[in-house]
User: Fold this.
Amino acid sequence: MGSLKEATTRDDESGFMATRVNELINWGRKNSLWPMPLGLSCCGIELMAMIGPKFDIARFGAEAARFSPRQCDVMIVAGTLTWKMAAAARTIYDQMPDPKWVIAMGVCSSSGGMYDSYAVVQGVDSILPVDIYVPGCPPRPDALIDAIMKLQRKIERENPIRRVLEGPQELDESGTGRLDVPANSMVETHRMGTYKTDSGLRKDQYTGRSREKN
Amino acid sequence: MAALKHMLSLGWDEVRETQDRDSMPTLTVALERLHEALEVLKRDCGFETVTLVTAIDHSPSEPRFELIHQLLSIQNNDRLRLRCALRGDHPNAPTCTDLWPGAAYMERECWDMFGIRFDGHENLRRLLMPEAYGHHPLRKEFPHQGIEPDRLYREWERERIQRAEAKTSQEGAGL
Assistant:
Protein backbone atom coordinates (compact mmCIF):
# COMPACT_ATOMS: atom_id res chain seq x y z
CA MET A 1 0.00 0.00 0.00
CA GLY A 2 2.99 2.23 -0.40
CA SER A 3 1.45 4.33 -3.14
CA LEU A 4 -1.59 5.38 -1.12
CA LYS A 5 -1.38 8.24 1.29
CA GLU A 6 -2.02 7.53 4.92
CA ALA A 7 -5.18 8.86 6.49
CA THR A 8 -4.53 12.19 8.07
CA THR A 9 -6.39 14.48 10.40
CA ARG A 10 -4.83 17.63 9.02
CA ASP A 11 -7.41 19.95 7.51
CA ASP A 12 -5.44 21.02 4.47
CA GLU A 13 -5.17 17.46 3.11
CA SER A 14 -8.46 15.73 4.03
CA GLY A 15 -10.64 18.65 2.92
CA PHE A 16 -14.42 19.12 3.11
CA MET A 17 -17.14 20.80 1.15
CA ALA A 18 -20.02 22.84 2.49
CA THR A 19 -23.26 22.99 0.55
CA ARG A 20 -27.02 22.77 0.96
CA VAL A 21 -28.75 19.42 0.69
CA ASN A 22 -31.07 20.76 -1.98
CA GLU A 23 -28.17 21.97 -4.06
CA LEU A 24 -26.38 18.65 -3.71
CA ILE A 25 -29.43 16.59 -4.67
CA ASN A 26 -30.27 18.87 -7.57
CA TRP A 27 -26.67 18.79 -8.76
CA GLY A 28 -26.80 15.02 -8.79
CA ARG A 29 -30.16 14.87 -10.49
CA LYS A 30 -29.48 17.36 -13.22
CA ASN A 31 -26.20 15.77 -14.20
CA SER A 32 -27.49 12.23 -14.43
CA LEU A 33 -30.68 12.57 -16.45
CA TRP A 34 -31.37 9.19 -17.94
CA PRO A 35 -33.68 9.59 -20.93
CA MET A 36 -36.55 7.29 -21.82
CA PRO A 37 -36.48 7.51 -25.62
CA LEU A 38 -40.07 7.30 -26.79
CA GLY A 39 -39.20 7.56 -30.47
CA LEU A 40 -42.56 7.53 -32.22
CA SER A 41 -41.64 8.89 -35.64
CA CYS A 42 -39.02 10.90 -37.51
CA CYS A 43 -38.02 12.89 -34.39
CA GLY A 44 -36.61 9.62 -33.10
CA ILE A 45 -33.86 9.82 -35.70
CA GLU A 46 -32.77 13.24 -34.42
CA LEU A 47 -32.99 11.86 -30.90
CA MET A 48 -30.60 9.08 -31.85
CA ALA A 49 -28.27 11.62 -33.44
CA MET A 50 -28.28 13.58 -30.21
CA ILE A 51 -27.35 10.53 -28.17
CA GLY A 52 -24.69 9.48 -30.69
CA PRO A 53 -21.06 10.61 -30.74
CA LYS A 54 -21.42 13.68 -32.96
CA PHE A 55 -23.71 15.66 -30.67
CA ASP A 56 -22.86 13.58 -27.62
CA ILE A 57 -25.14 14.40 -24.72
CA ALA A 58 -22.72 12.48 -22.52
CA ARG A 59 -21.28 15.96 -22.03
CA PHE A 60 -24.44 16.76 -20.07
CA GLY A 61 -24.68 13.43 -18.29
CA ALA A 62 -27.79 12.40 -20.21
CA GLU A 63 -26.44 9.77 -22.58
CA ALA A 64 -27.61 6.71 -20.64
CA ALA A 65 -30.79 6.01 -22.60
CA ARG A 66 -32.56 3.08 -21.02
CA PHE A 67 -35.36 1.10 -22.54
CA SER A 68 -36.86 0.22 -19.20
CA PRO A 69 -38.98 3.00 -17.68
CA ARG A 70 -37.91 1.85 -14.22
CA GLN A 71 -34.43 3.23 -14.85
CA CYS A 72 -35.33 6.54 -16.45
CA ASP A 73 -35.70 10.12 -15.25
CA VAL A 74 -36.72 12.08 -18.31
CA MET A 75 -39.17 10.91 -20.92
CA ILE A 76 -38.53 12.34 -24.36
CA VAL A 77 -41.71 12.05 -26.43
CA ALA A 78 -40.15 12.20 -29.88
CA GLY A 79 -42.78 12.17 -32.56
CA THR A 80 -46.44 11.81 -33.37
CA LEU A 81 -48.44 10.37 -30.50
CA THR A 82 -51.66 8.74 -31.65
CA TRP A 83 -54.62 8.11 -29.39
CA LYS A 84 -54.09 4.42 -29.85
CA MET A 85 -50.53 4.79 -28.50
CA ALA A 86 -51.53 7.22 -25.75
CA ALA A 87 -52.35 4.54 -23.18
CA ALA A 88 -48.96 2.90 -23.72
CA ALA A 89 -47.17 6.24 -23.35
CA ARG A 90 -49.05 7.04 -20.17
CA THR A 91 -48.28 3.57 -18.77
CA ILE A 92 -44.58 4.08 -19.46
CA TYR A 93 -44.74 7.45 -17.72
CA ASP A 94 -46.48 5.93 -14.70
CA GLN A 95 -43.84 3.22 -14.45
CA MET A 96 -41.01 5.73 -14.23
CA PRO A 97 -39.92 6.40 -10.65
CA ASP A 98 -40.06 9.92 -9.23
CA PRO A 99 -38.54 12.39 -9.81
CA LYS A 100 -39.36 12.42 -13.50
CA TRP A 101 -39.64 14.97 -16.25
CA VAL A 102 -41.10 15.06 -19.73
CA ILE A 103 -39.75 16.72 -22.85
CA ALA A 104 -42.18 17.10 -25.77
CA MET A 105 -39.90 16.96 -28.79
CA GLY A 106 -41.14 18.40 -32.07
CA VAL A 107 -44.39 20.03 -33.04
CA CYS A 108 -46.33 16.76 -33.22
CA SER A 109 -45.89 15.99 -29.56
CA SER A 110 -46.13 19.67 -28.61
CA SER A 111 -49.38 20.46 -30.39
CA GLY A 112 -50.27 17.75 -32.87
CA GLY A 113 -48.34 19.64 -35.54
CA MET A 114 -49.57 19.22 -39.06
CA TYR A 115 -51.62 16.18 -38.04
CA ASP A 116 -54.84 18.03 -37.32
CA SER A 117 -56.56 14.70 -37.28
CA TYR A 118 -58.86 12.35 -35.41
CA ALA A 119 -56.04 9.88 -34.83
CA VAL A 120 -53.39 12.13 -33.28
CA VAL A 121 -53.15 13.50 -29.75
CA GLN A 122 -53.23 17.28 -30.11
CA GLY A 123 -50.32 17.87 -27.77
CA VAL A 124 -49.06 15.29 -25.30
CA ASP A 125 -49.77 17.77 -22.51
CA SER A 126 -53.34 16.52 -22.62
CA ILE A 127 -52.16 13.19 -21.20
CA LEU A 128 -48.75 13.92 -19.63
CA PRO A 129 -47.30 16.80 -17.59
CA VAL A 130 -44.78 18.32 -19.97
CA ASP A 131 -41.80 20.31 -18.69
CA ILE A 132 -40.08 21.44 -21.89
CA TYR A 133 -41.47 21.93 -25.39
CA VAL A 134 -39.05 21.74 -28.31
CA PRO A 135 -40.30 23.30 -31.56
CA GLY A 136 -39.20 22.01 -34.95
CA CYS A 137 -40.21 19.40 -37.46
CA PRO A 138 -38.06 17.65 -36.50
CA PRO A 139 -35.90 19.77 -34.19
CA ARG A 140 -32.17 19.61 -34.75
CA PRO A 141 -30.21 17.73 -32.08
CA ASP A 142 -28.87 21.13 -30.97
CA ALA A 143 -32.39 22.20 -30.07
CA LEU A 144 -32.90 19.09 -28.00
CA ILE A 145 -29.57 19.65 -26.23
CA ASP A 146 -30.83 23.14 -25.46
CA ALA A 147 -33.97 21.54 -24.00
CA ILE A 148 -31.83 19.26 -21.81
CA MET A 149 -29.90 22.31 -20.58
CA LYS A 150 -33.12 24.20 -19.89
CA LEU A 151 -34.37 21.20 -17.96
CA GLN A 152 -31.17 21.28 -15.93
CA ARG A 153 -31.83 24.94 -15.09
CA LYS A 154 -35.33 23.96 -14.07
CA ILE A 155 -34.12 21.12 -11.85
CA GLU A 156 -31.76 23.55 -10.12
CA ARG A 157 -34.80 25.49 -8.90
CA GLU A 158 -36.58 22.48 -7.42
CA ASN A 159 -36.81 21.79 -3.72
CA PRO A 160 -36.38 18.04 -3.21
CA ILE A 161 -35.78 18.14 0.56
CA ARG A 162 -39.26 19.50 1.05
CA ARG A 163 -40.66 16.02 0.57
CA VAL A 164 -38.56 14.79 3.52
CA LEU A 165 -39.47 17.71 5.76
CA GLU A 166 -43.15 18.08 4.93
CA GLY A 167 -44.11 14.58 3.85
CA PRO A 168 -45.30 13.47 0.42
CA GLN A 169 -46.94 16.17 -1.64
CA GLU A 170 -49.73 15.66 -4.03
CA LEU A 171 -48.15 15.46 -7.43
CA ASP A 172 -48.95 18.33 -9.69
CA GLU A 173 -49.73 17.30 -13.20
CA SER A 174 -50.30 20.73 -14.62
CA GLY A 175 -47.13 20.54 -16.65
CA THR A 176 -44.50 22.34 -14.64
CA GLY A 177 -42.62 21.42 -11.52
CA ARG A 178 -43.84 18.88 -9.04
CA LEU A 179 -42.27 18.80 -5.61
CA ASP A 180 -41.72 22.53 -5.30
CA VAL A 181 -45.12 23.62 -6.56
CA PRO A 182 -48.17 23.19 -4.33
CA ALA A 183 -50.77 21.08 -6.06
CA ASN A 184 -53.48 23.72 -6.10
CA SER A 185 -51.36 26.61 -7.37
CA MET A 186 -51.36 25.58 -10.97
CA VAL A 187 -48.64 27.44 -12.77
CA GLU A 188 -50.10 29.12 -15.80
CA THR A 189 -48.24 27.79 -18.77
CA HIS A 190 -49.07 28.13 -22.39
CA ARG A 191 -51.23 25.12 -23.00
CA MET A 192 -51.69 24.33 -26.62
CA GLY A 193 -54.98 23.24 -28.05
CA THR A 194 -57.03 24.85 -25.32
CA TYR A 195 -59.15 27.95 -24.88
CA LYS A 196 -60.60 29.66 -21.86
CA THR A 197 -64.33 30.10 -21.41
CA ASP A 198 -65.96 33.14 -19.82
CA SER A 199 -66.17 31.31 -16.52
CA GLY A 200 -62.43 30.71 -16.59
CA LEU A 201 -62.59 27.03 -17.48
CA ARG A 202 -59.93 25.77 -19.82
CA LYS A 203 -61.38 23.58 -22.52
CA ASP A 204 -59.97 21.48 -25.25
CA GLN A 205 -60.05 23.22 -28.59
CA TYR A 206 -61.19 20.10 -30.40
CA THR A 207 -63.30 18.10 -28.02
CA GLY A 208 -64.68 21.01 -26.02
CA ARG A 209 -64.03 19.02 -22.87
CA SER A 210 -62.69 20.54 -19.73
CA ARG A 211 -58.94 20.33 -19.32
CA GLU A 212 -59.00 21.41 -15.68
CA LYS A 213 -57.90 19.06 -12.97
CA ASN A 214 -60.77 17.89 -10.82
CA MET B 1 -58.32 -5.15 -74.00
CA ALA B 2 -57.85 -8.90 -73.79
CA ALA B 3 -59.63 -9.32 -70.47
CA LEU B 4 -62.70 -7.48 -71.70
CA LYS B 5 -62.78 -9.47 -74.95
CA HIS B 6 -62.57 -12.68 -73.00
CA MET B 7 -65.37 -11.67 -70.68
CA LEU B 8 -67.56 -10.58 -73.60
CA SER B 9 -66.94 -13.93 -75.24
CA LEU B 10 -68.24 -15.59 -72.08
CA GLY B 11 -71.41 -13.56 -72.36
CA TRP B 12 -70.74 -10.76 -69.85
CA ASP B 13 -72.78 -8.20 -71.73
CA GLU B 14 -73.19 -5.79 -68.85
CA VAL B 15 -69.44 -5.33 -68.28
CA ARG B 16 -68.36 -1.93 -69.51
CA GLU B 17 -64.98 -0.42 -70.07
CA THR B 18 -64.56 3.07 -68.65
CA GLN B 19 -61.81 5.55 -69.14
CA ASP B 20 -60.03 6.68 -66.01
CA ARG B 21 -57.75 9.68 -65.93
CA ASP B 22 -54.67 7.59 -65.23
CA SER B 23 -55.43 5.53 -68.39
CA MET B 24 -55.46 2.30 -66.44
CA PRO B 25 -57.80 -0.24 -68.07
CA THR B 26 -60.98 -0.16 -66.03
CA LEU B 27 -64.06 -2.36 -66.02
CA THR B 28 -67.31 -1.62 -64.29
CA VAL B 29 -69.24 -4.62 -63.02
CA ALA B 30 -72.44 -5.07 -61.06
CA LEU B 31 -72.23 -6.09 -57.42
CA GLU B 32 -74.09 -9.36 -58.02
CA ARG B 33 -71.42 -10.60 -60.42
CA LEU B 34 -68.35 -8.98 -58.82
CA HIS B 35 -66.99 -12.14 -57.27
CA GLU B 36 -67.64 -14.13 -60.40
CA ALA B 37 -65.81 -11.52 -62.46
CA LEU B 38 -62.80 -11.60 -60.15
CA GLU B 39 -62.77 -15.38 -60.39
CA VAL B 40 -62.82 -15.32 -64.20
CA LEU B 41 -60.06 -12.71 -64.28
CA LYS B 42 -57.89 -14.76 -61.98
CA ARG B 43 -58.55 -18.10 -63.70
CA ASP B 44 -58.55 -17.14 -67.37
CA CYS B 45 -56.76 -13.82 -67.70
CA GLY B 46 -53.73 -14.46 -65.53
CA PHE B 47 -54.30 -11.86 -62.81
CA GLU B 48 -52.42 -13.59 -60.01
CA THR B 49 -52.35 -10.66 -57.64
CA VAL B 50 -54.72 -8.13 -56.18
CA THR B 51 -52.72 -5.02 -55.39
CA LEU B 52 -55.46 -2.83 -53.94
CA VAL B 53 -58.92 -3.14 -52.43
CA THR B 54 -60.37 0.21 -51.49
CA ALA B 55 -63.49 2.29 -51.81
CA ILE B 56 -64.67 5.77 -52.68
CA ASP B 57 -67.41 7.60 -50.82
CA HIS B 58 -69.50 9.55 -53.35
CA SER B 59 -71.88 10.87 -50.71
CA PRO B 60 -74.49 12.34 -51.05
CA SER B 61 -75.10 10.82 -54.47
CA GLU B 62 -76.54 7.37 -54.79
CA PRO B 63 -75.15 4.71 -55.19
CA ARG B 64 -72.99 6.05 -52.42
CA PHE B 65 -69.91 3.82 -52.36
CA GLU B 66 -67.74 2.49 -55.10
CA LEU B 67 -65.57 -0.52 -54.43
CA ILE B 68 -62.27 -0.67 -56.26
CA HIS B 69 -60.18 -3.74 -56.97
CA GLN B 70 -56.85 -3.35 -58.74
CA LEU B 71 -55.36 -6.48 -60.20
CA LEU B 72 -51.86 -7.23 -61.45
CA SER B 73 -50.86 -9.89 -63.93
CA ILE B 74 -47.17 -10.56 -63.62
CA GLN B 75 -47.07 -13.06 -66.50
CA ASN B 76 -48.73 -10.61 -68.94
CA ASN B 77 -47.34 -7.41 -67.40
CA ASP B 78 -50.86 -6.11 -67.24
CA ARG B 79 -52.96 -4.21 -64.75
CA LEU B 80 -56.72 -3.92 -64.45
CA ARG B 81 -59.09 -1.94 -62.28
CA LEU B 82 -62.58 -3.08 -61.37
CA ARG B 83 -65.21 -0.62 -60.21
CA CYS B 84 -68.36 -1.75 -58.50
CA ALA B 85 -71.14 0.49 -57.19
CA LEU B 86 -72.53 -0.23 -53.71
CA ARG B 87 -75.94 1.01 -52.65
CA GLY B 88 -76.88 2.25 -49.21
CA ASP B 89 -75.06 3.63 -46.21
CA HIS B 90 -73.99 0.28 -44.78
CA PRO B 91 -73.30 -1.87 -47.81
CA ASN B 92 -72.11 -5.44 -48.03
CA ALA B 93 -69.76 -6.80 -50.65
CA PRO B 94 -68.38 -10.25 -51.40
CA THR B 95 -64.90 -10.96 -50.12
CA CYS B 96 -62.10 -11.91 -52.48
CA THR B 97 -59.93 -13.51 -49.81
CA ASP B 98 -60.89 -16.95 -51.15
CA LEU B 99 -59.15 -15.99 -54.41
CA TRP B 100 -56.30 -13.91 -52.98
CA PRO B 101 -55.71 -14.45 -49.26
CA GLY B 102 -53.52 -11.34 -49.22
CA ALA B 103 -56.58 -9.15 -49.71
CA ALA B 104 -57.59 -9.81 -46.10
CA TYR B 105 -55.78 -6.80 -44.64
CA MET B 106 -57.03 -4.48 -47.37
CA GLU B 107 -60.60 -5.58 -46.80
CA ARG B 108 -60.18 -5.09 -43.07
CA GLU B 109 -58.90 -1.57 -43.69
CA CYS B 110 -61.81 -0.94 -46.03
CA TRP B 111 -64.26 -2.05 -43.32
CA ASP B 112 -62.42 0.07 -40.76
CA MET B 113 -62.34 3.24 -42.85
CA PHE B 114 -65.63 3.04 -44.81
CA GLY B 115 -67.84 0.57 -42.96
CA ILE B 116 -68.20 -1.78 -45.89
CA ARG B 117 -68.79 -5.35 -44.72
CA PHE B 118 -67.18 -8.15 -46.69
CA ASP B 119 -69.29 -11.29 -46.65
CA GLY B 120 -67.22 -14.42 -46.21
CA HIS B 121 -64.21 -12.68 -44.71
CA GLU B 122 -62.91 -14.88 -41.90
CA ASN B 123 -61.59 -12.15 -39.63
CA LEU B 124 -63.33 -8.89 -40.41
CA ARG B 125 -62.03 -6.75 -37.53
CA ARG B 126 -60.83 -3.19 -37.61
CA LEU B 127 -57.25 -2.84 -38.81
CA LEU B 128 -56.12 0.60 -37.66
CA MET B 129 -58.68 2.11 -35.32
CA PRO B 130 -59.41 0.60 -31.90
CA GLU B 131 -61.98 -2.18 -31.98
CA ALA B 132 -64.42 -0.24 -29.77
CA TYR B 133 -64.26 2.86 -31.96
CA GLY B 134 -67.73 3.54 -33.25
CA HIS B 135 -67.05 5.44 -36.46
CA HIS B 136 -65.56 4.98 -39.90
CA PRO B 137 -63.10 7.83 -40.46
CA LEU B 138 -62.94 8.03 -44.27
CA ARG B 139 -66.68 8.47 -44.68
CA LYS B 140 -67.70 11.87 -45.93
CA GLU B 141 -69.79 12.73 -42.87
CA PHE B 142 -66.84 12.15 -40.54
CA PRO B 143 -65.19 15.44 -39.46
CA HIS B 144 -61.44 15.37 -39.99
CA GLN B 145 -60.77 16.29 -36.38
CA GLY B 146 -62.80 13.31 -35.34
CA ILE B 147 -65.72 12.59 -33.06
CA GLU B 148 -64.48 12.43 -29.47
CA PRO B 149 -61.05 11.15 -30.50
CA ASP B 150 -59.98 10.79 -26.89
CA ARG B 151 -63.03 8.89 -25.63
CA LEU B 152 -61.41 5.46 -25.42
CA TYR B 153 -58.26 6.89 -23.84
CA ARG B 154 -60.26 8.75 -21.20
CA GLU B 155 -62.20 5.59 -20.35
CA TRP B 156 -58.91 3.75 -19.96
CA GLU B 157 -57.54 6.58 -17.83
CA ARG B 158 -60.54 6.49 -15.49
CA GLU B 159 -60.04 2.76 -14.99
CA ARG B 160 -56.34 3.31 -14.38
CA ILE B 161 -57.00 5.91 -11.69
CA GLN B 162 -59.62 3.69 -10.06
CA ARG B 163 -57.17 0.78 -10.00
CA ALA B 164 -54.49 2.97 -8.47
CA GLU B 165 -56.86 4.28 -5.81
CA ALA B 166 -58.09 0.79 -4.97
CA LYS B 167 -54.50 -0.35 -4.60
CA THR B 168 -53.63 2.58 -2.33
CA SER B 169 -56.62 1.98 -0.06
CA GLN B 170 -55.77 -1.72 0.08
CA GLU B 171 -52.23 -0.94 1.19
CA GLY B 172 -53.56 1.50 3.74
CA ALA B 173 -55.87 -1.18 5.17
CA GLY B 174 -52.95 -3.59 5.38
CA LEU B 175 -51.00 -1.17 7.52
About this structure: Residues 141-156 of chain A form the longest helix (16 residues).
